[in-house]
Amino acid sequence: MTTLRESFGDCRIIVTCGPGGIGKTTSAAALATAIATNEPLRVLVLTVDPARRLADALGVPGIGNEPLDVELAGAGTLSVAMLDPQASWDALIRRQAADEETAERILQNVLYQNITRRFVQSHDYIAMERLHELVGRGQWDLIVVDTPPTRNALDFLDAPTRMADFFSSRFLKWIIAPARSSVTSLAAKPLTYMADKILGNQFLTDITEFFLLLSSLYDGFVERAREVESLLAEESTKFLIVSTPEPIPTREATFFNQELQKRSLRIGGWLVNRMLPAELNLTATATGVAVLAREEMAQVASLIGVDVATMVAARDRMVAITEEYTIVADRERAQLAALAAGDTPVFGAFTAEGEIDTLQGVTSFGQRLLSAERVLKFD
Ligand SMILES: Nc1ncnc2c1ncn2[C@@H]1O[C@H](COP(=O)(O)OP(=O)(O)OP(=O)(O)O)[C@@H](O)[C@H]1O
Ligand SMILES: [Mg+2]
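Above are the sequence and the adenosine-5'-triphosphate SMILES. Below is the predicted complex in structure-token form.
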């Protein structure tokens, strides 16, 4: 039997991904915490979620762009950082620009500020870029990366390629060409003036300047985008697809699973999260309630001050609910078995009681994930 931990072997990067709101951030934090507790590894969890809840659970004042140490009594160490797209972009520009003046001009450019603040695509790229930078620091044995709830979860995977393509594109060369030539630039002056009049002060000037400045970063960007790409493809990078047993998240995750395979990226497992708790022995409970004798019913009824008919109705309702619950639980198990028929190792995780909002809660959820056993095809 393979456990989820075994399935991820000695990989150095674990990327949790999948549809929105199904537990990517929780699983990333829980896995990182439990691994750092059990093993003598320096673990970093890089989250995209500014959730205050997570910071509180991990006992850090707030999660920021720079990694913070989490106080943990374990064999290893745990650090946590949050992806702040704007701060990461600014840091990247400062690192890559030829000199300080160029960096400042880019940072002050209105278009740059809009793109890096508002465009989700720019966040996808910077998430991967940031990962590359943190790996480069060599301070961690394992980095668990949480990913944004992108509508198209593939965007962040393709972001490095798209960035490299953009920098090599004819579009970029075309747009900055007039600015490079003083003759065209003069000829284009009235046009620029008009555009500024219509689109607002400085608009076109800003665009041209932005792309011109950006082109000075060309080599560095293309090279880094390629490096990020190969980092994702490395043998020590594995993906954990997270979904719930519901049809829509399952469909999205299935698609994502196929796309990862198409790209020959490694999938360590598919976690079906938030399944109905297994502890409830449903049939026994239902039967127990159903066989309550009428006399017992009468006793209980008088004890709590209701009539027997109300008690019987309540009992029937409970039995019906329990039966429905059993049907759903059975369906979830069947779903799990069906997914397990594919090549990707499938693991299940039950809904935890209450919120997972303390270090102990996060750790114990993580421990359960690590020891989850691969669902066999014929379970
Ligand atoms: N197995 C579980 N049992 C109970 N609660 C869970 C479980 N997994 C996740 N949750 C809860 O579900 C909520 C959503 O989880 P989380 O924020 O990790 O999802 P996400 O996939 O990162 O969402 P988003 O796509 O918005 O980033 C949280 O309140 C979390 O505590
Ligand atoms: Mg999240």
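The chain has a mean pLDDT of 84.
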